[in-house]
Amino acid sequence: MYYAKYMDITFNKRKLEELLVNFYNCTQISISIFDSNYVCVANGGSPQRFCNKIRANGLTLQGCTLSDENHFKKAKTEKKTIVYTCHAGIVESITPIFYENVIIAYVMLGRFRDAEHKYSSLSIVRKSLSAYELMDQEKEYLKLYKQLPVFSVEQLNSAIAILKTCIRYIWNENLIKLNKSMLPTKIENFILENLSGELTVKNICKTFFISKETLYTIFREEYNDTVKNFINNKRIQQAEKLLVETTSPIANIAEQAGFSDYNYFIRLFKQKTGLTPLQYRKKNPPN
Fold it and tell me: Would you state the pLDDT for residue 183?
């Protein structure tokens, strides 16, 4: 199993690679799955000699990494499959995998030429070689380039359509699994550890890579509550604790509990406990 950093997601590497190898055997198009941090999880198909030579050079290897990262970001922004020319002049595509409208992984197809020369051609490769000052090795690179498999745009579109069916299979067979049962506890702990800071739906979702809909569902199903009310209850509980255990001024306690508006804190505290903070402290004086 492969565990994605910062996310409650499990990738079944062995079974994913079995699927990817089957995809490659049928299409002859190399395929890889990357997590949301652009780390490769599983591969299908052997690297082409052209790509191996490109990656053997430190400068062009850096170009590969930058090209991949830029196109992952583009797929993330556009939230759809993109087809493009990589920095070395060959065809690749990236398809995002979604959960609850959040991208949790990517599938990359590539390492080939297109028959229509829409994305790759000898002139495009020569331009890339020139940019990397590799024209002295032009003959060798172009020989390896000509060994790359050739597919039409129509064939690529068909492969992408098959890929989308494979993604549904991946979900049905739990080859990529979101461990939702772990999320409520982690989110609650995050809230408790950050009561004095800014706690919003947006920053909670960003921290745990989940959508607003997922967050709302978790609180509805696990706590029978809204996110805002849950946070307010925890903050009031923290204020109660500080009122009893410390002699800090009430204004300071309001800030420590995460309330920037003192008057709002007073109103909410009385609404939740039936007492003002001062009345609560008098009833429960610090030891």
Answer: 79
Question: What are the chain's domains?
Answer: 2-178 (3.30.450.20), 180-283 (1.10.10.60)
* Structure-block tokens of residue 81: 């499959």
Contact 132, 63 (CB under 8 A): yes
The neighbouring-strand residues paired with 96 are 106
Instruction: Give the pLDDT confidence score for residue 4 in this predicted structure.
Output: 38
**CA atoms of 35 and 68, how far apart (whole Å):** 13
Count CB-CB contacts under 10 A for residue 278. Answer: 12
pLDDT for position 181: 66
Residue 213, C-beta contacts closer than 8 angstroms, at least 6 positions apart? 100, 101
Q: Is residue 212 within 8 Å of 102, Cβ to Cβ?
A: no
Question: Which residue positions in the chain have pLDDT lower than 50?
Answer: 1-7
Asked if 89 contacts 125 with a C-beta cutoff of 8 angstroms, the reply is yes
Full-model pTM: 0.66
Question: How many whole angstroms separate alpha carbon 36 and alpha carbon 105?
Answer: 5
